[in-house]
Design brief:
By secondary structure, the chain is α/β, with parallel strands linked by helices. The chain has 2 domains: 2-27 and 201-243 and 257-301, no CATH class; 29-187, Rossmann fold. It is built from 11 helices and 10 strands. The strands form 3 sheets. Strands 3-6-2-7-10 form a 5-stranded parallel β-sheet, covered by helices on one side. Strands 1-8-9 form a 3-stranded mixed β-sheet. Helix 6 packs across helix 7 and helix 6 (203-218) crosses helix 8 (259-271).
Length: 313
């Protein structure tokens, strides 16, 4: 879908932005309802008293995988499942050992499957599928190693594991694991914004803005670092994430019509603190001149379970 700047701006100029939020969030609600029906239909075909199914969630950076997974978990629990969200990021090898698992790489590549301890992940999943309780890890990015998350996953009669991450749908990750059902979900903001006669802001550029703001607020990481990492992130997406589309059972569009005005306002403000060199790099990745075609907006009232909260608050 393509959104047009003139139409988006009209909502803000007429102080009707709440209507725009309602339309966008309603589209997401409909997608969640469709996905929940798909999961339930798939699991109903399972014979037996015990069910352990897995939803494998992947998509490029800043698509909203984390918040999406939490919301899906809450919805499926209403249908009687014991849901657990598992992040593949928590299975990274320790920072000091990542390069050892990538002997052919010139430098550690955090986008490759080899950066993750697949053997440990599979061992934990096999034990859980065999009826054992497992202690889920948490990756401490400051320490650069796994630590105990304090979460114990105890099997029940109706388990749904929501496994999210860039390699969640990679067949090598779940090879040999006997889940009753697996459902692959590919999430991405697929839509773009058109400025008639001037150009377009793509979903890739939306994701860059999302990531820059999220990392600044939630990961204490400056925009300059996001810009430095972005070429490697994009390369990893092309090599490791887009090919996973073929395994998807459901495509979730995480675009919001209203987000462009929030993103552009905060990016323009953040850009004021960049050096001349950093600003040039930002302009290489993002058409700042096109952002000026959209209304400014610092705050909106959006639902507490909105995926956009991952980048907004």
């Amino acid at each position: 879908m393509k959104y047009y700047a003139q139409e988006i701006n009209k909502y803000f100029l007429e102080n009707r932005q709440d209507e725009l939020v309602h339309v966008a969030e309603s589209r997401h609600t409909l997608q969640f309802e469709q996905l929940c029906r798909l999961i339930n239909f798939s699991c109903l075909r399972t014979i037996g008293n015990h069910l352990t199914a897995a939803v494998l969630v992947t998509g490029p950076s800043s698509s909203g995988k984390t918040t999406f997974s939490k919301r899906l978990s809450a919805l499926m629990e209403e249908d009687g499942y014991q849901c657990t969200v598992i992040s593949i990021d928590d299975y990274y090898h320790s920072r000091e050992n990542i390069h050892r698992h990538q002997p052919a790489a010139k430098k550690p590549d955090y986008e490759r499957l080899e950066a993750f301890d697949v053997a440990f992940f599979q061992e934990q999943m096999r034990r859980f599928l065999n009826g054992e309780a497992i202690h889920l890890p948490r990756y401490d990015f400051q320490l650069g190693q796994r630590v105990d998350s304090g979460r114990i996953l105890q099997p029940s009669h109706k388990d749904l594991l929501i496994i999210e991450g860039i390699h969640a749908m990679n067949p090598k990750l779940t090879e040999g694991l006997q889940f009753a059902r697996t459902i692959g979900v590919y999430i991405c903001p697929f839509d773009s914004y058109i400025i008639e006669g001037k150009g377009e802001i793509s979903s890739k550029e939306i994701r860059l803005m999302r990531r820059a703001l999220r990392d600044t607020v939630h990961r204490a990481s400056p925009i300059s670092k996001t810009l430095d990492m972005w070429p490697d992130v994009r390369r990893g997406e092309e090599q490791y994430i887009k090919p996973m589309k073929q395994y998807a059972d459901f495509f979730f569009n995480s675009s919001f019509e209203y987000e462009i005005c929030i993103l552009k306002t905060r990016i323009e403000e953040a850009a004021k603190s960049l050096t001349a060199e950093e600003l040039k790099k930002l302009k290489d990745f993002l058409p700042l001149h096109l952002l000026k075609e959209f209304c400014d907006c610092n705050a909106l009232t959006i639902p507490s379970d909105s995926i956009f909260n991952e980048f907004y608050k």
